[in-house]
Every structure is written in structure tokens, then in C-alpha cells.
Amino acid sequence: MKLDDRLLKTHPCPCTSTRVNYNDRMGVQAIEVKNLTKVYSNDFKAVDDISFAVNEGEFFGFLGPNGAGKSTTMRVLSTLLKPTAGEITIAGFKLGPQDDEIRGSIGFAMQGVTLDDMASAWENLLLIGNLYGMTKQETQSRAGELLNILNLEKVADSWVKNYSGGMKRRLDLAAVLMHHPHILFLDEPTEGLDPAARRVIWDYLRDLNKQGTTMFLTTHFMQEADELCERLSIIDNGKIIITDTPANLKKEADGSLDDVFIHFTGHGIRDEDVSNKGVDPYVRS
Amino acid sequence: MTEFSKIKYLFFRGFKQATRPYAALAPELIIPLFFFLINSSAFQRLVDLPGFEYTTYLQFYAPVGLLTAIFVSSGSTGLEVVTDISTGYMDRLFLAPIKRWYIVFAKLAAVGLKSATLTSIMLIMFMLFGAQFNGGIIGLLFILLFAFIFAMAWAGIGLSLAFITKNPRVVQSAFIFFFPFSFITTAQLPLELLEGWYKIAVQLNPVTYILEGMRAILATGEIGQTVFVGLLVASGFAVITLSVATYAFRKSIVKQ
Ligand SMILES: Nc1ncnc2c1ncn2[C@@H]1O[C@H](COP(=O)(O)OP(=O)(O)OP(=O)(O)O)[C@@H](O)[C@H]1O
Ligand SMILES: [Mg+2]
């Protein structure tokens, strides 16, 4: 599928209640994290005093083994989880007192698909657009545009539960992009996609990034990180081990990004893999 | 205006969620009708009891059928919310720049509407089977009000369990409360014909007053004290369960 030019047009954020004048924000770091710690209610320290910053318009990667604390970090940055400690600024807004402004500026494709299964793609997107304060007209044209780009037009009216995994993934991304977010959090966005579909998503993400969207990506596909990211952090056991460009990291490990990953995080399979993969959805504190 | 529109969209979504898949509506229509038909036939001879003022048991039992309709139509709310939590859809809603109470409020309003709709369908069915409705338009509005308020009250129990446990099995098991709340009432016999501890238990059960309020509308159409006491009790029930649900929502769902 060839991505068309419409993609490359920049869209102002249409949500009036949360409109941000990004021209005034030039030079502001898109994501600024100082000494973030997250301890879950069972006293487990999933993120341990990390600090980093992502520049406006940067494509930033966040790599690490299963259970390293990537999703936890993203859930904190996206306002879904409260940090135990730390000072965080997203799009120039302070996490905590300005959560609403942050929510209006970001899109978060969570690990796993989060859609209303018993509704159509249209219904899913129209609700989301409305909740972000878009007018009916804006919502409809944006939904149509995204369904077209992500090749879901034909199934737009059937219930999501009948979709394939890849279709759900693409619709999930559409839902995240409805309100033209300025910063995108992507938690394993191409998990479960076939190589062709993955390419489509990569191209699309790259284009969005060219238009100015800041990207914060986690992935277990090293090729994905290598192709897309300008800078990478490697996190393990809740701590950031190193942050650098893919090129420098590869130089340091003298090999591919796979080698980099293993070089910095060790060889063992993580215990967390067991407890973390069939994620118990009922324990989400 | 946009804020109202957000609630409206969440309300429509909540309503659709409560009615899909459409096949799942079948038991909600069948169970009240089943109870109504079986019991009104089985216990017809009870009208011969001295002190029993109805000439047909069917007429006496019709409001119990309506009450059952309210119970079953609102009983799946907790499960629907647990599904939203476990699929992560609740998080998707939390990410939107909205007040989080909109989500619960809209869902409850949707459940109220669903229950009121199902209750009016049941009322029509019961009338087709010979029940009398003496309430007129005003009476019908009051029946719908009962359905709307008590459905939210009942949904509050499922919601509370959903937010506290986030576990579908626990939430599903809340339906067992249906038995004491709906059986230990004046469902089978009028209060005057009850005795002993059972009579006391019936008098302590708030649902008794809700049932009697609806029964009064069906029987006499008079909107008097019984009706208002019933509505007051239903509202009190709702205030309690929804306060617990709100507390649980804030405590366990809103970020920790
Ligand atoms: N709700 C929770 N309560 C307690 N511990 C949790 C909770 N959620 C996650 N954890 C733990 O926190 C750690 C980090 O989990 P997280 O989901 O952030 O890892 P991740 O880096 O995203 O891993 P993956 O690559 O497998 O997605 C894990 O050890 C996990 O078991
Ligand atoms: Mg993860």
C-alpha cells in the first residue's frame, strides 16, 4: 500500500478544549523525566529512579527485556499510573496538576489492543473523536481519512470482534491518532503484525514523525528500533543502562542491535516473562 | 456543550454495550415472563385465602414480574465494566481529556434507560396475558421512574464489585443477591398474611417497599403514599450502592 500525500499535510489539533499552541513551545522538550520511580502496591519497584529527555520531533526508542519496566514507564508518562516519585513534564505540562492538558496532547497505543469489541470501527472512532472535543464533522472526516490510510474502509461497519489481529492493531492505531496527538507513545505497536503490515505502520510512523510528531516507542523487534529510532535507551530491572544513537550503540557492541541488546542486558530469559505474558488483567494497580 | 456531548456519546456507547449481542437480551425478556407465567398459574388458588384481596393471582404477581425485569436487565452492568477494565478499554477512556465520573454516570444512565425500556415491554406482555394496568400515562411514567432508579441502584452492587475485585467471576456471582432481595418480600403473599421472623425480614427488606409502590400503581393507579415511600426507598438504595461504587471507582480504578 502506498501512503498518499494527505498523510504529509500537517493538521492542527482540532480539540478546542485542549488546544496547544506548539509554535510557542519550540525548544521545549517533548518529554522530560527526572528521577522517576514507580513502586506498585505490592511493593514491587518496577521503575527505579530513571531520568531522560526526549526532544521535540525526535523518534525515541525504549528497549529492554520482558519485565524491565517499559510499559510501566509509559503508563506513568501517559497519566494512567501515578508515579511514586519523580518530576515529569510532557509537552511542557507538569504531570499531576496538568494531566488533562497532557492527555489532550498525547496519543498512547497501549500494549495489546484496547478497543470496544462489540462495536464497529466507525463507532469506536466516533466516540474517541467526540471525547477529545472534536466536532462531529471533524470526527467523521478524520475517521474516514484514517480508515482509508490504514486500509480498514471495507470493514468499517462490522464489529471489531470479527477482525483479525492485524486489523485490530491498525484500528487501535487509528483510535490513538484521531485527535492529531503531538506526542505518540507506542508500546509494541507492531506486535503480532505480518511483515507487510509492519512495513505499512513503519512508513506511516516515519511520516508522522517527519510532520513533527514526537515518538516514544518500545519494541522487541530490533530491526524496528534500528530503522525508526534516532536515539535509544536500554532499560533493565527498572534502570536505564545506556542511551545513545543506534549507530553508536552498535559500534560499542561491535555488532547488530540484537548484539547490543544482549550485550547490555545479559543472556538469560527473564523470570518476569512467565508472570508478565498472560498478564493478569485484573491486577492492574 | 461539548462536555454534555461527551456524556451523551458515552451514554449511547453504554446503552449499546448493554444491549449487545442482541441474543443476550433473550434471557432478560424470557426470565421475567417465565416467573410471571409459572407463578401466576401455580398459586392461583391462593386468592381463596381469607384476607387475600386480589381476585387473580396474576394481577397480584404482575409487579413482581416487572421487578424481576429490572433486576435482570441491570444485573450485567458489573460484568460489562469488568470487561472494559480487563480489555484495557477503560484505560482508553481514561486517556481522553474527560472527567472520569462521566464514564460511570453515562453508563448508569444507559442502564436505567435499558431497564425502563425492558420493563415497559414486560408490562405490555403482562397485559396481553390479562394483567390490569390502572395507572394510565402518569402511572406508566412512575413505573418507568421506578425502573430507572432501581436499575441504577442494583447496578451499583455489580459496579462496586467490579471496581473492587476486577474479577468477572466475583461480579457474576453478585446475582445471588437477587434471591433474598426479590424473594423475601411481599412477592408471594401480602404482608397481612405473613408471620413471625419472615414477616420481620420482609419488612426490613427495602425491595418490599419498592414492590408495593409498583403494585399500588398497577392495582389502583393511585399515586399516593405507598408510591412515594417506594420511590424514596429506591432512591436511598441507589444512594448507598452508588456511593460505594463511586468510592471503589476512585480508590481502585483511578490511578494508583
Ligand atoms: N499491576 C502490577 N502490580 C505489580 N507488579 C506489576 C504490575 N504491572 C507490572 N508489574 C511488574 O512490573 C515489572 C515491569 O512490568 P512492565 O509491564 O513495565 O514490563 P515491560 O518492560 O513492559 O515488559 P514486556 O516487554 O514484557 O512488556 C514486571 O516485573 C511486572 O511483573
Ligand atoms: Mg510492556
Write the layout of secondary structure elements.
The complex is a heterodimer of chains A (285) and B (256).
Chain A: E1 31-39, E2 45-54, E3 59-63, H1 70-77, E4 85-90, E5 93-94, H2 99-105, E6 106-109, H3 121-131, H4 136-149, H5 165-177, E7 183-187, H6 195-210, E8 214-218, H7 222-228, E9 231-236, E10 239-244, H8 246-253, H9 257-265, H10 272-276
Parallel strand pairs in A: 3-8, 3-9, 6-7, 7-8
Antiparallel strand pairs in A: 1-2, 1-4, 4-5, 9-10
Helix pairs in contact in A: 3-4, 8-9
Chain B: H1 2-19, H2 25-42, H3 57-74, H4 77-86, H5 89-95, H6 101-128, H7 136-165, H8 168-173, H9 178-183, H10 196-204, H11 206-219, H12 225-253
Helix pairs in contact in B: 1-6, 2-3, 2-6, 3-6, 3-7, 3-11, 4-7, 6-7, 7-11, 7-12, 11-12
The complex binds adenosine-5'-triphosphate and magnesium ion (MG).
Give a written overview of the molecule.
The complex is a heterodimer of chains A (285) and B (256). Chain A is built from 10 helices and 10 strands. By secondary structure, chain A is α/β, with parallel strands linked by helices. In chain A, strands 6-7-8-3-9-10 form a 6-stranded mixed β-sheet, with helices on both faces. In chain A, strands 2-1-4-5 form a 4-stranded antiparallel β-sheet, with helices on one face. Chain B is mainly alpha-helical and 256 residues long. Chain B has one domain. Chain B is built from 12 helices and no strands. In chain B, helix 6 crosses helix 7 and helix 7 packs parallel to helix 12. The model of chain B has no long low-confidence stretch (mean pLDDT 94). At the A-B interface, helix 2 and helix 3 of A face helix 1, helix 4 and helix 5 of B. The complex binds adenosine-5'-triphosphate and magnesium ion.
